[in-house]
Amino acid sequence: MPLGPRVELAPRLSELVAERLLTMMRRGDLTEGSRLPPERELAETLGVSRTIVREGLSALQLAGIIERRPGVGTVVKRVIGGPNLSNLQDQVHAGVSIVELLDARLAMELGVAHLLVEQKDRDLSRVEGLLGQMVEAVRRRRRVDDYLEPSFDFHLALAHVTEQPLLVSFMEDIYGQMRPHIWLIGRAYTLEVAERSLQMHELIFSSIRHRDVIGALAAIQRHYRQYPALQLKEVSRSDASAAGPVGRSTRPARDIGEDAGKEEE
How wide is the angle at C-alpha 69 spanned by C-alphas 183 and 97, nearest 5°? Predict the structure, then answer.
């Protein structure tokens, strides 16, 4: 039975912002090392909100095109064109998806934390075990995905403790959409980033275990509003850009803190 004409989804505004900035780079308006205008100015120029601009910039940062440097601002890290353009557009699309999914995770996990703080009978042993795996991955500087996989499972395990099937289903759907892009997040994981992420997860767990609702909600908000992979990078920090797709990598898996060098352009 015919399903009718295929429906093409309109590009998201944040993706259009990213594409507009890429066009400016390719035609030479923005070159490697150039500093981008402030978010407010970009929002006015492009006719969108600062939130949309911020999401577009985050997507470009995940794709390794720009970086945010303390005391400097947002600068162009590299300009790609030619045969690599299609791959870059896929990365930008994935970056936009990640940013949107992080917002969804925040909304859901605030509810999860609230339920767990008030829940009388709860078993946090699996969550604690996953946190231990994350600690070990950072301590031994293991593969990036040896840290990211249990960090994803950590949040899902918290949802399972609530014993709310609908909530668990929503969370599994969100993380199911995010896992194919885990390699893109992993590109940003230096040892410093992993340590910062681990501290946030330890604070979330400690607050929930001690039934500190204010601390738990604050820790989760901080985790997603200051998501480690999207924070300012020190100018001297080496580029960690070759983590590769988990389970599908065409290059050797990178260890946490290992200098991956520059991607081929």
Answer: 35
Let me know: does 39 contact 56? Beta carbons within 8 Å. no
Burial class for 260, CB neighbours closer than 10 Å (0-12, 13-18, 19+): buried
CA–CA dist 26, 80 (Å, integer): 7
Model confidence pLDDT, tens digit, residues 193-205: 899 999 999 999 9
Kindly report the pTM of this predicted structure. Answer: 0.73
Q: How far apart are CA 16 and CA 74, in angstroms?
A: 18
Q: What pLDDT digit, counting tens, does each position of 41-95 carry? A: 999 999 999 999 988 998 898 888 898 888 888 999 887 765 555 677 788 888 8
According to DSSP, residue 247 is labeled T
All structural domains of the chain, each given as residue ranges with its CATH number in brackets, are 13-79 (1.10.10.10), 83-230 (1.20.120.530)
- CA angle at 60 for the pair 59 and 65, rounded to the nearest 5°: 155
Q: Where are the beta strands (DSSP E) in 107-150?
A: none
